[in-house]
Design a protein that fits this description.
Helix content is 43%, strand content 14%. By secondary structure, the protein is an alpha/beta fold. The longest helix is centred in the middle third of the chain and has 27 residues. It is globular and about 60 Å long. The two termini are 34 Å apart. The protein binds zinc ion.
Length: 307
Amino acid sequence: MKKKILIFALSALFLFVVSGCSLNHSKPESAATPDSNKLKVAVSFQAMKGLTEAIGKDHITVESVIPDGSEPHNFQPTVKNLMALHNAKLFIYNGFGLENAWLNKVTNAASDNKDLVLVEASKGGKPLLLNTPEYKGKNVDDPHFWVSINGSELEAKNIKDALVKADPKNKADYEKNYQTFYNELESLKKEYSKKFADSKRKDFVTGHAAFGYLAKDFGLEQKSISDALLSGEPSAKKLKELTDYCKKNQVTTIFVEDMVSPKVSETLAKEVNAKAVKIYTLESSPDKLSYIDALRYDLEQIYKSLN
Ligand SMILES: [Zn+2]
């Protein structure tokens, strides 16, 4: 009986947190003064901003359609959100279905900007196909390509190529910045491939299933409260299975994301006697960390949880 009440409380809490989260966490975009000499780039959400800034650095200004602090899975941009498209040279989006619900609005919003080039950052990548009960027998692409080493390497390369094409005079800098970024990712890959190969266990539990590609990069297994597309509140059955799984397998850590039901993860952690530890999906800006540092933080926290 006690368990039933707990599961009910978790479900109710999830609803409450999901419905309130985008309001509570909305932060205004910074009002950076645009420098007329810089290449103007619009992106769909924060992870694209992080990747683009890592390659473009001082040569570009980047504005995000989805404001920092709003989760990108169920977002519908307003006319105001789409303002950045009027004078941008590039619009960089993730792809793998993430922006499908509103991508047609981009061309409409930029009808006065015929030169706007659309760049699909995940182009050429192989999507992970999801087929869990939430999707009722349909295969859907996992969009979280950016939360991985291989994914962010490819996305950074596609972004670099687009910047070079749009602004060839700064080609040497874009190439150099990309090479530095790539080398750092490769050294992370090397370091953590060894660490995870020697890890005692291979499974980790998150609030939102955003780490499928990262898990695949390193031969790990992700369990989560909410599905990858945040397609609804988790069922009582799923919460019970996860609670039982954590107890049976003595899971020591439940990872908590900023924007997706942090209270549910924290409650689960308490129930199964585990620590609640923050993890970054890069869907909002990762506090004060750079893109690479946020990935490194995630990998280190996952590693610690496995040993
Ligand atoms: Zn996500």
